[in-house]
Design goal:
This protein has helices at residues 12-23, 43-46, 67-78, 89-104, 106-119, 129-150, 166-176, 183-190, 194-206, 210-214, 216-231; strands at 3-7, 29-32, 56-59, 62-65. The chain is α+β, with helices and mostly antiparallel strands.
């Protein structure tokens, strides 16, 4: 059966799925959607994901959405190396703990901050400085928690691991979305977190060349926004 992956590479969870598949040699068909044109809200895609969000996958008659669920499913389906999603129930629980924490903390800070400072005008919506300020606080707290809880010690990845898990990939892709914000704001947010910055580079290196290749659309968007700020 052919795996189809529905994505927009500007989406951080969508990039995590693509990088995971490429890093593990999983064959798939990439189906690109343009979220700026609201292609993810069309009826034909909502038949796959009623939530109207990317990413989503189709494998034969099986359909699945939500990036964490997709990563766990693909890890089991294709028998990837154990470090991605450990078979040991205790190590797996630790990975799932971080994934559950992600959406209500890191993502709930990073995504609305970026949306309300950079992306809202792309969708014809005015920026919301108050919402951005609230999200900024949650984002700062989340980055501190990652460092103090899961990047403490000498390990290269979360929980002191020597190789990345799906949690490393998902969280790093989330943080990478900060490439879109003004460089001064990015430095303000990430500059104090040296372990976070090192961890990002470790994750890139562990998945190269796929990480940067999949992130190229993000880097292109960054360049466009930077040019707009300079000319504006």
């Amino acid at each position: 059966m052919k795996l189809k992956v529905f994505v927009d590479r500007l989406s951080q969870p969508a990039r995590a799925i693509l990088i995971f598949c490429k890093a593990n040699g999983i064959e798939f068909e990439e189906v690109s959607l343009d979220i700026t044109k609201r292609e993810h809200k069309k009826p034909e895609f909502k038949a796959i994901n009623p939530m109207g969000q990317v990413p989503a996958i189709v494998y034969g008659d099986f359909q699945l959405f939500e990036s964490h669920a997709i990563l766990m499913f693909l890890a089991g389906l294709f028998g990837v190396p154990d470090h991605w999603y450990p078979a040991d129930i205790y190590q797996r629980a630790k990975t799932q703990c971080v994934l559950d924490w992600h959406h209500s903390n890191l993502r709930s800070g990073a995504a609305p901050y970026i949306y309300n400072t950079v992306l809202a005008p792309v969708f014809g919506v005015p920026t919301n400085p108050q919402a951005a300020a609230q999200a900024d606080k949650l984002l700062a707290a989340s980055l501190s928690h990652i460092e103090s809880l899961w990047l403490k010690g000498d390990g290269t990845f979360l929980h002191g691991a020597a190789q990345p898990s799906i949690a490393d990939l998902g969280l790093v892709c989330e943080i990478m979305q900060l490439e879109l914000v003004d460089e001064k704001d990015r430095e303000r947010i990430l500059g104090p977190h040296k372990k976070i910055l090192e961890w990002i580079e470790n994750t890139k290196n562990a998945t190269k060349p796929h990480f940067d290749e999949v992130s190229e659309k993000l880097y292109q968007a960054k360049a466009i926004f930077q040019k707009q700020r300079t000319s504006g």
